[in-house]
Specification:
The complex is a heterodimer of chains A (304) and B (128).
Chain A (H helix, E strand, L loop, with lengths): L10 E10 L2 E11 L4 E5 L6 H8 L7 E6 L2 E2 L5 H4 L2 E4 L11 H9 L7 H11 L12 H13 L5 E5 L7 H18 L2 E5 L3 H7 L2 E6 L2 E7 H5 L2 E8 L13 E7 L2 E7 L6 H8 L1 E7 L2 H15 L1
Chain B lengths: L14 H14 L12 H8 L3 H13 L3 E3 L5 E3 L4 H26 L3 H12 L5
Antiparallel strand pairs in B: 1-2
Classes of the chains: A alpha/beta (304), B mainly alpha (128).
């Protein structure tokens, strides 16, 4: 079957692999995205984030596996789907001799849904130098233009590959604001890749982490944050603590009568009963995305 | 009137939890009164620069917990609760802080009498 026109999914991949000669960029990715929401795609350099986004946009064809974007197999994507897709590449390519203004006109002519109000607002918000030629722009300004070109047709699926890596803090924060607005207005689905977790944690409601071409994590952001905690444990009787053996304890550092435990809450006992059982005081602290991410990657390496 | 909320997106507490906790505290401390209207999901999300899904999740859970209710139409307002419910909810905020204080007292080896004296003193500061 070439398409799922009624599919409620904006993207669906089964066992997706992409090899560049001997190099494996994606090694069996299975995932599906429904309508709406902001997905944070995280992973180290070379984890496969850009390759996955390129495959989603149909710019790269997978070596094996199946994938559908906006209900159509990605090798068959054509105008109806492409006009509903927005892609902001990490290193955008433009017609370099054009002024920004002219380039916007040029790109707008391909999209019936081009939103001139949004374009005007974005130009003002991000402070884009419209009169200058693209070839003369700084990396940051080029990134802003790429954002405009990727967003002004109000896509149903917006793919952003490290869109904020060259932006200054003000442009960054405006960009995040904009994403949220776009999402609220149109039920647009946004996939944003970044190795800067601070940007992601402000907006994403789902986190997908890639490592060595595999999905190592795919979970709602809130659920993820609520899955782990750090417990600082102090012995009540002044004795040294011996190692804890509960399987829910993923890591522990003990120093005399104090220990720092990283706990997987799904199979952890209640804090009170743990405290009573070991005759200890427990102070709990949530872990943030960065800490959880480090924890999961370390886990990965231990398994491998 | 949108309540004044401060969300920290880096402390590991999900934003919807922070919204819930702060709205509950505002209600229990009388900043928000019964019948007061909540900002719309969209308005609050824009103000806090959060994903609208986060705000609607917080509102839905506050409604489930009987803290807010939906008035005819769409507006969410602070729900009238029984005295018992209100008291229980107030104590929940305090219990959490006192738990930490009790643990700290125990960790520092401060005696029960000493700790109680300190708490009493804080409740009734001596007039100088």
């Amino acid at each position: 079957m070439n398409s799922h026109p009624d599919s409620p999914l904006v993207f669906q991949a089964t066992n997706l692999a992409k090899h560049y000669d001997a190099h494996v960029a994606l090694a069996g990715v299975t995932l599906s995205l429904g309508h709406g929401g902001i997905v944070g795609l995280i992973g180290r350099n070379g984890a496969g984030k850009s390759t996955l986004l390129n495959v989603m946009a149909g710019l790269t064809l997978p070596t094996s596996g199946e994938c559908y974007t906006l209900g159509t197999r990605t090798d068959l994507l054509d105008s109806p789907e492409l006009t509903r897709l927005g892609f902001v590449m990490q290193e955008p390519r433009f017609v370099e001799w054009m002024t920004v203004e002219l380039h916007l006109e040029f790109t707008a002519s391909f999209y019936p849904s081009w939103d001139r109000d949004l374009q005007g607002r974005l130009v003002a918000m991000l402070d884009v130098p419209v009169k200058r030629r693209l070839g003369e722009l700084s990396t940051g300004d080029r990134q802003k233009v790429a954002i405009l070109l990727g967003m002004c047709h109000r896509p149903a699926l917006l793919l952003l590959d490290e869109p904020m890596s060259s932006l200054d803090p003000i442009a960054r924060s405006r960009m995040l604001e904009l994403l949220l607005e776009l999402m609220g207005d149109d039920e647009c689905t946004v996939v944003i890749s970044s190795h800067l977790l601070n940007d992601i944690e402000k907006v994403a409601n789902r986190i997908i982490a890639l490592d060595a071409g595999r999905v190592v994590l795919d979970e709602g952001y809130d659920e993820l944050l609520e899955s782990y905690a750090e417990w600082v444990v102090t012995a009540k009787d002044g004795q040294s603590l011996s190692p804890f053996t509960e399987p829910c304890i993923l890591r522990q550092q003990t120093s005399g009568r104090i220990a720092r435990l990283t706990v997987c809450l799904a199979d952890a006992p209640e804090v009170e009963s743990f405290a009573t059982a070991h005759n200890v005081l427990v102070q709990t602290r949530p872990l943030n995305l960065e800490e959880i991410y480090a924890l999961l990657l370390r886990g990965q390496e231990v398994v491998a | 009137m949108p309540p004044l909320l401060v969300i920290n997106s880096h402390n590991g507490v999900p934003a919807y939890r922070q919204i819930m906790d702060q709205i509950k505290l505002q209600i229990d401390s009388g900043v928000l009164m019964v019948g007061d209207e909540m900002a719309s999901t969209r308005a609050l999300a824009a103000e806090l620069q959060l994903n609208p899904m986060t705000v609607s999740k917080a509102y839905a859970l506050l409604e489930r917990d009987g803290v807010l209710e939906r008035r005819r139409g769409q507006t969410l307002v602070v729900r009238q609760r029984s005295t018992h419910e209100v008291d229980e909810s107030r104590l929940t905020h305090l219990r959490q802080r006192l738990r930490e204080a009790a643990d700290m007292a125990s960790q520092l080896g401060v005696s029960r009498t000493e700790a109680m004296r300190l708490f009493r003193e804080m409740l009734n500061p001596p007039k100088s």
